[in-house]
Specification:
Structural class: alpha+beta
Bound molecules: zinc ion
Strand order of the largest sheet: 1-6-7-5
Distance between the termini: 27 Å
Number of strands: 10
Radius of gyration: 20 Å
């Protein structure tokens, strides 16, 4: 967490409030969260830059700068990018602060300090290891089908592999598998064509619905304006151990796959 829908929601919020603004002043209170590029402090490197765009790649928020460089931000478990109004107090755990023209402040907070904001040079292939965007035109049924060939890994573990499909985490993997009625521990290569079609549709559908509801706040996720998401009220299996399946009424079970809690319905997901 946060996964694709949460980062997408954050990025859309940031796009509304920081694009076109100039970075006037930068405070790095915890250096590992905004590592300095070689030979120059992070604050010096980005002060004076104008923000030209904000986009998402996988689970990363990418703040594009007029020089062609970008600030690639990974929120990891508990990171937050929050826009503050003038004189509004910093969020707890704010370790990097970008003061922008017009009095806007962008705070990068992370209580667990795993998050990172990295300055990336133009053309630097920082995302070369990331797979296809599941909401892009490149994620077709055929592409998905060929990705699964000869893959013996459980389908749920496959969905979490950012090198194959970028942006899906534990919540949406569980939800998509339930929607497609696929057993999470099934080897990827063992899915038949109808199951692959259902799962492809479910991945796109679940991510789209979660973006529409501005993400899932099962923990401390908030968007760029500090607001909680709404998809936690629409979850079918994730975190619902023992509660009745909304499709068949049997209790939701929890198993562990690759060290991750996996919620599913043994009756519906064969
Ligand atoms: Zn069920």
């Amino acid at each position: 967490l946060p996964e694709l829908p949460e980062v997408e929601t954050i990025v859309r919020g940031l796009a509304r409030s920081i694009v076109g603004k100039t970075i006037r002043r930068v405070q790095v209170r915890l250096e590992k969260m905004a590592p300095a590029p070689p030979g120059i402090p992070f604050a010096h490197a980005v002060t004076g830059e104008r923000i030209t765009g904000v986009r998402r790649r996988g689970k990363y928020a990418v703040i594009e700068l007029a020089s062609g460089r970008s600030l690639v931000t990974s929120l990891r478990m508990t990171g937050r990018l929050v826009v503050q109004r003038p004189n509004e107090p910093d969020f707890p755990g704010t370790h990097v602060v970008l003061d922008l023209s017009g009095g806007t402040r962008l705070g990068f907070a992370d209580l667990r300090t795993f998050g990172r904001m990295r300055l990336v040079e133009p053309g630097e292939p920082w995302d070369a290891g990331l797979g296809v965007e599941p909401l892009s035109s490149g994620f077709t049924q055929e592409a998905f089908m060929s990705m699964l060939l000869k893959r013996t890994t459980p389908i749920k573990v496959f969905l979490l592999d950012q090198r194959r499909i970028a942006g899906i985490g534990n919540i949406y993997a569980c939800e998509a598998l339930w929607e497609a009625r696929v057993n999470p521990s099934r080897p990827a290569q063992a899915l038949n064509k109808p199951a692959i079609r259902r799962l492809h549709h479910a991945v796109v559908d679940v991510l789209g619905r979660a973006i529409d509801m501005r993400g899932t706040s099962v923990d401390d996720y908030v968007d760029a304006d500090g607001l909680r998401g709404g998809f936690q009220n629409a979850l079918s299996v994730y975190g619902r151990l023992g509660e009745p399946c909304v499709r068949c009424g049997k209790p939701i079970v929890r198993t562990v796959l690759a060290q991750r809690g996996t919620w599913w319905c043994k009756n519906c997901q064969r």
